[in-house]
Structures are given as structure tokens and as C-alpha cells.
TrEMBL record:
Coarse class of the protein's main subcellular location: cytoplasm
Protein name, UniProt field: Ribosomal silencing factor RsfS
Subunit: Interacts with ribosomal protein uL14 (rplN).
NCBIfam families in UniProt: rsfS_iojap_ybeB
Subcellular location field: Cytoplasm
Amino acid sequence: MTTAAQVIKTRLPNPPPPADVLLQHVRNAVEELKAKDVVEIDVRGKTSVTDHLVIASGTSTRHVKSIADEVVKHAKKLDCMPLGVEGEREAEWVLVDLGDVVVHVMLPRVREFYALERLWTVGDQPPEEEDALIAGRE
């Protein structure tokens, strides 16, 4: 007596969207909810964790949470589930990890205190004094 073998159909997961497509959707999301002082930082070569950081400010904790929620909503439209969302309860700093793009939405005072832009751009541009010294030597 033979029995028919059961075939389990597997489906490969959808590949994540390209970083530039994901980044454009993040831009659209933060723009749609009027985030303040949006900065994008290319961190390829500085970290293996992500390729791009997007840092934005909200005017209140409710605004910060709404911006982060909109980022998640736009990512889901691309069939991209966030790897993690942190800080939603307090909503002073919400981090949305989308893999190739990590989004930080912060209250202005929190953003000023942690100064992520300075942390991730140190060494990208030489100080003006060094430029003057180099120019004087030539």
C-alpha cells in the first residue's frame, strides 16, 4: 500500500526593497507629517549595521510618535516590515529600524542633547583651520 507523499510548498521571502527606494518612502513619510529639520546621513563604510540614517524632529511627543508610525506605514506599503521600533511609549525619541535605513524621530531637546548628526559626521569634512594651513603650505 503506497501513500501519496505530502508536498510542502515553500515560498521564498520577498527580497527587501533597494535602499534608495526605501529611503524615498521614508522621505515621503516624514514630509507628509511635516517633520522638522530632516537630515539624511550616508553611513556606508562607517558601520555595518545600516546604510542610511534619517534624523527628524517632531514638535511634541504625539507628533514624534505619529511621524514614526507614518514611516512604518510607508515601509509596509513596500512589503517591508520594520526589524524593530523602540521608544514609542515615551515618544521623546523613536527609532524605526528598516534594515538599510534607520530612522530617528526626536524631540528637539533630545536631539540637541545626543547630537547624532555630529557623532556620525565627525571626520567627513576637514575643519576650516586645517584647510587654511594646507592652503598656506602649497
